[in-house]
From TrEMBL:
CDD domains cross-referenced by the UniProt entry: Peptidase_S66_mccF_like
Native source organism of the sequence: Kluyvera sichuanensis
Domain LD-carboxypeptidase N-terminal residue range list: 15-135
Protein origin, superkingdom: Bacteria
Domain LD-carboxypeptidase C-terminal: 210-330
Protein name: LD-carboxypeptidase
Signal peptide range: none
InterPro entries referenced in this protein's UniProt entry, alphabetically: Carboxypeptidase_A_C_sf, Class_I_gatase-like, LdcA_N, Peptidase_S66_N, Peptidase_S66C, S66_fam
Keywords assigned: Hydrolase
Pfam family, one: Peptidase_S66C
Family note: Belongs to the peptidase S66 family.
Higher taxonomy: Bacteria, Pseudomonadati, Pseudomonadota, Gammaproteobacteria, Enterobacterales
């Protein structure tokens, strides 16, 4: 299936905001308002959905309402991008209610964000050929000042199609939770030095290329073996270009992470790839050297694959993170001095 890159966003375009997973509770509405104001300051028109400013039982509304509103915005020719506020936990309830066949027949538009939104990113790309943007969520764009890595999302969304864009590893990352409830316009508190690593422990430079596909492992691992997570077909369709798989872990402890990775391994996800990028893990780890830890989990499932495997990359729930376009051709370079990702849009 041919990958279709949505049109670039320009001033005057309409951006729709709906929450297909978790809604925004009242105490965080001020942060949401700042994020929406940031869109308007850039010249965009903003349409709010009804499934947005409410949260009950871990979701913005029931699954039928969320699916209907998402489909409405994805199919509306006047809407040029759909930007949920963030992810959540229950986007999987929508998959059987979304008409992916219909979406396959219409012009793509940008669908951006990360976390539970990966549940939707993956089939939009693999079933419909839509390039989707795994990167900062809308709520993160409400900061009074964006760091360089986070702000790169606009470079992706606003550049001319056919362009090649290059983004570099961040200098530092954040380990603490966001403080939006008490400091509404706060950016990230970037305190820890960023250091991409090779799983084989080597420091020599390495470069690999292919079409990007991936997301939050906590959810995409649950799609494996279903029509919504058919990575085998995606790899076959793009075998001439190569495929780069990327993912990050948000909640799984080392043993659960190992089980998730082995499930993908047994289903062939790690075969015939050009390379793998793994984001910084936000999941719990162990300090006891006699227990199976995070690095043990990666080495157990991926230590013998004959391709480059990078970890602690700028992807996921320990910000900042790069903006990666599912379906786009990418060239990844690792060196002892840092790393970069070049994408062709």
């Amino acid at each position: 299936m041919k990958i279709r890159i949505p049109s670039r966003l320009v001033s005057g375009d309409t951006i729709a905001i709906t929450a297909p997973s978790s809604g925004v509770p009242a105490h965080l509405h001020p942060r949401l308002d700042l994020a929406i104001s940031a869109l308007r300051d850039k010249g965009f028109r903003v349409v709010e959905g009804r499934c947005l400013r409410h949260q009950h039982k871990n979701k913005s509304a029931d699954e039928h309402q969320r699916a209907a509103e998402l489909m409405q915005f994805l199919c509306d020719p006047d809407v040029k991008a759909v930007m949920p506020p963030w992810g959540g936990e229950l986007a999987m309830e929508l998959l059987e209610l979304i008409d992916f066949n219909k979406l396959n027949d219409i012009e793509p538009k940008w669908f951006s964000g990360f976390s539970d939104l990966s549940t939707l990113h993956l089939p939009l790309t693999t079933l419909c050929g839509w390039a989707t943007l795994h990167g900062p969520n809308l709520m993160e764009l409400g900061a009074r000042e964006l760091d360089k890595t986070t702000s790169f999302v606009w470079k992706i969304l606003e550049c001319e199609r056919g362009s090649t864009v290059t983004q570099y590893a961040s200098e530092k990352f954040q380990v603490e939770a966001n403080q939006w409830g008490t400091e509404t316009d706060a950016g990230f508190n970037l305190t820890q030095p960023t250091k991409w690593k090779r799983l084989d422990g080597q420091s020599e430079s390495v470069t690999f290329h292919g079409r990007l596909i991936g997301g939050c492992l906590d959810t995409i691992a649950r799609l494996a073996g279903t029509e919504y997570g058919d990575i085998a077909s995606f790899k076959k369709q793009h075998s001439g270009d190569g495929v780069i798989l990327y993912f990050e872990n948000v909640e799984m402890a080392p043993c659960e992470l190992t089980r998730a990775l082995y499930s993908l391994r047994l289903q062939g996800w790690f075969k015939t790839l050009s390379g793998i990028m793994i984001g910084r893990s936000a999941g719990p780890n162990v300090g006891d050297e006699n227990q199976h830890n995070y690095l043990d989990a990666l080495r157990s499932a991926l230590g013998d694959v004959n391709i480059p495997v990078l970890y602690d990359v700028d992807i996921g729930h320990m910000p900042p993170q790069m903006s990666l376009v599912n379906g786009a051709m990418a060239w990844v370079t690792f060196s002892d001095n840092g790393g970069l990702v070049k994408q062709q849009l």
